[in-house]
Fold each of these.
Amino acid sequence: MLDLIKTLDPANGLARGWQIRPPDPGLPLWSLAVDIGGLAARGQAVDEYPLHTVGAFGVSRADTMTRAAGEAVERYALFPARPGPAAVTASAVELGPAGLDFAGYALGDPAVRDQRMRWYEGHWLETGRPVWVPAALVDYPLHDLSFDPTPSGAAAGPTLDFAVRGGLVEVIERDAVGVAWAAERALGEFDVEQEIAAARPTADWRHLTRLYRAALGQGLRPRLIRVPTLPGFHGVMAAVLDGDALAAVGAKAHENLGRALLIALQESLQIREALTRLRDDWGGVADAPDVVHDDMDRARLWLTEAATTELKRRLRDVPPVRPGAASQPPLALDELVAAVAADGGSPVAVDLTARLPEAHRAMGWHAAKVIVAGYQSLRMDERHQFTWQRARLAAAGAAVPGSFPHPLI
């Protein structure tokens, strides 16, 4: 078993410090923030996006520590560093079929196929065959206008398969919400109380009951929305509207409905807390950016009345979901890969374990980044048109993608 205290111990080289906070009347969740340093701490320019603090919220102290430690490890592994995966410098044209066709899969700008760039060795999860993956699809944070760097698809855990599976599930979730949002797909709303009444009283359902009712007790009305996703999975988008100028959205895809509802609600409350703190730091609601370039721009947008109005419009007259949907045990990695392939995705994984501090590797930590060619990736920079997975949107009924930026921060 991984030692979470040692994972976060600054003496072991990954965290510079951490702080845990118990639930309070305004936030019925534990929270843990971890300082992993930013790019400047790794010898890079201070003016680049300084990703210092990561963390997690949870329904218990143990759950929160587990999630926060995993988040810290996976985010640390995304920093460009050596040692790392095997790498080459070449153009897409030079690599030919040995390289991931980022242009054909709407993962990067076709205009740079002739330009030499850095690539990491990964492997196709269906076949196990090696494939070179552009570093700009792996490293984060990274400024490269020919790609759209994102932390989505990164995960960590006690084995490489565990990390790869976690990253793949996150990409499934992001694809589901991204397609549903851009295509304005038909949605359904869960009646949480009816779902609780119909479910077996497992730990996830008990935690969901307490968290949902605590949110109601604060005057919030969380909306738990079903999002179409991979067969056998439950896709949930949780929306918390707080007045006219704060809309927070979380999401989760999982084989177990109780887990999907719980984590989606938890994530939405976490985003609400983050937006509230940003609003306080900025001295009120800032003007919306003309174009969303990154997470901070997206946060500014989702602190505006225009964003809450858009979310209310989309959630107007959403029909109810029939309660008691069946859940299934988690799929093994090979089963999950086969299901994604049947859904039109071709997943690739890059092993990032070598980037972790020696102490963490010795503890048994592994980290990976997963990219699914053919799935809609999480759009960070709304300027890019080359990252729209247009065939997937068309299959969802969208002739053109919607213009209002998605709410996942």
Amino acid sequence: MSCEVTTKDRAGIINPMFDCQPAGAQYAGIGVKDCIPLVHGGQGCSMFVRLLFAQHFKENFDIASTSLHEESAVFGGAKRAEEGVMVLARRYPNLRVIPIITTCSTEVIGDDIEGTINRCNRALKEEFPGREIHLVPVHTPSFKGSHVSGYAECMVSMVKTMATHKGVPSGKLNVFPGWVNPGDVVLLKRYLREMGVDATVFMDTEDFDSPMLPDKSIHTHGRTTVEDIAHSPNAMGSIALARYEGASAAEYLKAEFDVPCIVASTPYGIGNTDAMLRHISELTGKPIPESLVKERGIALDALQDLTHMFFADKKVAIFGHPDLVIGLAQFCMEVELKPVLLLLGDDNPRYKKDPRILELQKTVDWDMEIVRNADLWDLESRIRDGRVAPDLIMGHSKGRYIAIDANIPMVRVGFPTFDRAGLYRRPTMGYQGAMELGETIANALFTHMEYTRNREWILNTW
């Protein structure tokens, strides 16, 4: 039996499952209050990303574009970036942060973003004396990495730009959950509140699930403020829950300001949630309350009702963000599901040394393949030619046609999910998330049994 990390054996991509770096940078940017990302590139580099966000959250987000055309490709687009910054400053009086996000075109032509920012700062100071707008250089060429690395790049760039000095200790905890849904942010904040921990979540996307109020005001925005970022060096510690999305910012604070840092396994499943709570307790000195012990017990009881009878030995294929995919694989193993194929959509060389993957290699007693730089053809082709025969597929909505064509039940999880209602407000992390995810998997399998008449009698004996 083997568990190996391989790389896609084709140069091209068929049916991509990941987006480009600027997409991830835009997601990090909209998590900050009074922030409008400015995408320095063609119009489509922001338009199609905004469409993805709108599909997933059913909300609209402010993202600007320098909208480069042929002239800029020949003579450079710096002037367009300068004009974009000034237009945003004039149009939005409450604007405080503008990440200037490069794309493949502006990186290839070599636009000097840092020089552009210096010129913009002088122009802003002259036209808006006394007003501070933080211009953040975010280098995200689309021809390398993915939206996962783009998110991480924007996170660390904003911290470097706004967290410039250490001041009075705040007694707060920095929490970097990575690219997660509002439902996960709400759950993490509840856990921290029940532990009595004063914490800042980077980025706080709770209000992406925004209300429709009688006064028709719009509340779809990030909750993380400029002050939150500026005071991050004063925290008692940082915990990163996403090795490939939030850890770089936490590690920068440790290296630059000596803020204690723990990079934890993403809290999918019982064991990873246990570890997260222990880490938070170690950093803050706060005990784990009985309310969370009880929630853990409820989740365990719900999962054991399903595990041996319905989940045991069923094979699962998982695709999506690396922290999500690896965490889901660990959760599957807790409930006796067998992850046989993990697809990671970029070529990050760090995957082979990821401690969680190394642990999987020591633990699994069946064949498991982990594919770097994968696309959805890697899933489809393996199913078609019989190299894998999963009983369940887990991943975002872009893989739905593979599941439909192969008649395999699928559980939607990750980004983007747009063909099932309200998934962005449901947690996947924590004890509650583990319980709800387990029940979602069970219901997907039950529904498939009913439609295929495959062992439907089991449901009558439960």
